[in-house]
Amino acid sequence: MTAAVPATHGEVWLRARPDGLLSTDHFEVVRVPVPEVTAGQVLVRNRLMSVAAVMRTVLQGGSDLPIPVAALGEPLWAPAVGEVVAAPGGELEPGAVVTHGLGWREYAAVDVADAERVDPSVLPDEAAYLSQAVTAWIGVVRGGEVRPGDTVFVTGAAGGVGTMAGQFARLRGAGRVIGSTGSRLKGAYLVRELGYDAVVIRGAGPIEEQLREAAPDGLDVVFDNVGGEQLVAALAVARRGARVALVGALSGQLAGGFTAPVGIDTGSLIVRGITLRGTSASDHLDAIPEGMREFGRGLREGTVVFPHARLSGIDQAPRALCELLEGRHTGAVLVEL
């Protein structure tokens, strides 16, 4: 039975726009009246929300990303999973579990058109609806076109996208999967738990030297979440005909932007026939159903796992984002609301 709705609930607002390192002082957790809903909307009691590195860019503003900038003194937003507790129009029944985009709050007034029912036959774990598996799937299948026997390098391999990309590359038949990360502990996890064959540790020596040792025959596919020196190193080690999926720009994004400029020898890329492809899920919407099906199948069969950390309570949401940006967690980061 659906619990009674309280008079007030918690929301997280942006208190000050960051200039430099993000801290919990940039946020404010406030108590406000639970929103009222009318026909065409449902009231959702949020259970889980996700935090992602792109939020740092949203907080900073000034990028070319096709998403709005966070406003001061207003609730933030993020993908969330919750239970419908009121549905004036009857389009969704109370008790239905849905996903939507209004996280960073305990209750949300969601337009019915923006609420997607959670289907356990697709993904057996509702938390998996907050994964970045679809981004990873599209980068592997459409961006990098991973083929049986390929040697694949995933930058930022311990993050929410990278932990899924390596597993999907293996499912697609990759012969060798290499990942980069910032700590030996995370590197050991990638090899032990996620099927990576080797890791490159940022800060443990020149990336290109480590990569040549891990991939002595070169790279067929680069799944790049980072940009910067890691992309430059990967291009140097890429084999003739290699495919490079540009999926993220963490080297610039962690500071609030979405630019990661690098120097590229275009002549070398031409001679070696290397393809660089900017890969965004918004350009491959037709691939999402397939990605969801394969993710769900992998979860049910045990061939794929969803690595993630959980923090509990809306007051922990700012800390969750800060810790994500500091590299304190492996996989996705979720907040239980």
Task: Please explain how this structure is put together.
The protein has 337 residues and is of the alpha/beta class. The chain is built from ten helices and 15 strands. The strands form three sheets. Strands 3, 4, 5, 6, 7, 14 and 15 form a seven-stranded mixed beta sheet that branches. The radius of gyration is 21 Å and the shape is globular. The model has no long low-confidence stretch (mean pLDDT 92).
User: What is the average of the pLDDT values?
Assistant: 92
What is the terminal-to-terminal distance?
A: 19 Å
Q: Report the sheet with the most strands, covering strand number, pairing sense and barrel closure.
A: 7 strands, mixed
Which value, in Å, is the CA radius of gyration? 21 Å
Estimated share of beta-strand residues: 25-35%
Report the strand count. Answer: 15
Unreliable sequence segments: none
The number of helical runs is 10
User: Which H/E pattern describes the elements?
Assistant: EEEHEEEEHEHEHEHEHEHHEHEHE
Structural class category: alpha/beta
Helix content: 25-40%
The best one-word shape is globular
Quick structural gist:
The chain is 27% helix and 26% strand. The protein has ten helices and 15 strands. β11, α6 (228-237) and β12 (238-246) form a beta-alpha-beta unit.
Describe the secondary structure blueprint for this structure.
Blueprint lengths: L7 E7 L12 E7 L7 E11 L2 H7 L19 E7 L10 E4 L6 E5 L4 E2 L15 H11 L7 E4 L7 H10 L4 E6 L2 H11 L3 E4 L5 H8 L4 E6 L3 H10 E9 L3 H4 L12 H7 L2 E4 L9 H14 L6 E5 L4 H9 L6 E5 L1
Helix pairs in contact: 2-3, 2-9, 5-6
